[in-house]
Each structure stands twice: as structure tokens, then as C-alpha cells.
């Protein structure tokens, strides 16, 4: 009977300890170093434009997601997405780099 009581107390202790630990924030969307990525690397929208829930995350393009998609649809010079299947879309780092360089050169 004592062994069963110890097992229950141990399980309860593990559950309380695991629930009380703070979780580490996810930083998967951050680009470590955009300049070092190969041209064939794929970037998601969250890595390119600012998201309202993450206003301090560094991004490459200085406009909102709505403007981003408007440019995808209407601007023939804007990098076109690569559909990876389902609802997963990405952009090639080389295409984004070339577009940024063209914008800097055109101004």
C-alpha cells in the first residue's frame, strides 16, 4: 500500500512541476542571417513581413502582410511564391534579395 501511495505522490509531483515551468518562446520564424542564406533557401511570409503579434521581430520587408499579398498579386517585379503543397507558401531567398537590390537601386 505504501508503494502505491508513493507512486501517486510521484506522479502528482511530476505533473505540478511540468505545468509550473515557463516555456521558451519559439523563434523559428526569425532569420539567423539573411545574407548567408543560399539563393535556393525558402522563406515563409512570417520571416519577410512584420506580424502584429510579434512587432519587435526583425523582418526584411517594411510593410504589412496585406500589402505583401497585394504586391504578390499585382506587381510583376515582386518575387513570386513557391507553393509547397496545401496552404504552405514560401519565397526563394535569391528572388527576395534581387527584388530588394532593385528597389534600392531604383530610388
Summary tags:
10% strand; 3 strands; 107 residues; 3-stranded antiparallel β-sheet; 4 helices; mainly alpha
Description:
44% of the residues lie in helices and 10% in strands. Strands 1-3-2 form a three-stranded antiparallel beta sheet. A hairpin with a 2-residue loop joins strand 2 (82-85) and strand 3. It has 107 residues and is mainly alpha-helical. The chain has a domain at 37-107. It has helices spanning 2-20, 45-48, 65-74, 93-106; strands spanning 42-43, 82-85, 88-92. The mean pLDDT is 79. The protein is built from four helices and three strands, in the order H-E-H-H-E-E-H.
Largest sheet geometry: 3 strands, antiparallel
Q: How many E strands?
A: 3
Mean pLDDT: 79
Order of strands across the main sheet: 1-3-2
* Unreliable segments of 5+ consecutive residues: none
Helix content: 40-55%
What integer value in Å does the Rg equal? 22 Å
Q: What are the secondary-structure elements, in order, as H or E?
A: HEHHEEH
Give the structural class: mainly alpha
Shape: globular
Tally of contiguous helical segments: 4
Head-to-tail CA distance between termini = 80 Å
Report the portion of residues in β strands. 5-15%
Secondary structure blueprint with pairings:
Layout: H1 2-20, E1 42-43, H2 45-48, H3 65-74, E2 82-85, E3 88-92, H4 93-106
Antiparallel strand pairs: 1-3, 2-3
Amino acid at each position: 500500500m505504501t508503494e502505491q501511495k508513493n507512486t501517486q505522490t510521484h506522479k502528482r509531483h511530476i505533473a505540478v512541476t511540468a505545468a509550473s515551468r515557463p516555456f521558451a518562446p519559439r523563434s523559428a520564424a526569425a532569420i539567423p542571417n539573411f545574407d548567408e542564406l543560399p539563393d535556393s533557401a525558402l522563406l515563409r511570409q512570417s520571416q519577410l513581413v512584420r506580424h502584429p503579434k510579434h512587432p519587435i521581430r526583425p523582418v526584411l520587408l517594411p510593410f504589412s502582410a496585406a500589402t505583401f499579398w497585394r504586391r504578390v498579386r499585382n506587381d510583376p517585379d515582386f518575387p513570386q511564391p513557391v507553393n509547397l503543397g496545401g496552404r504552405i507558401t514560401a519565397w526563394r531567398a535569391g528572388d527576395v534579395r534581387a527584388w530588394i537590390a532593385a528597389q534600392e537601386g531604383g530610388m
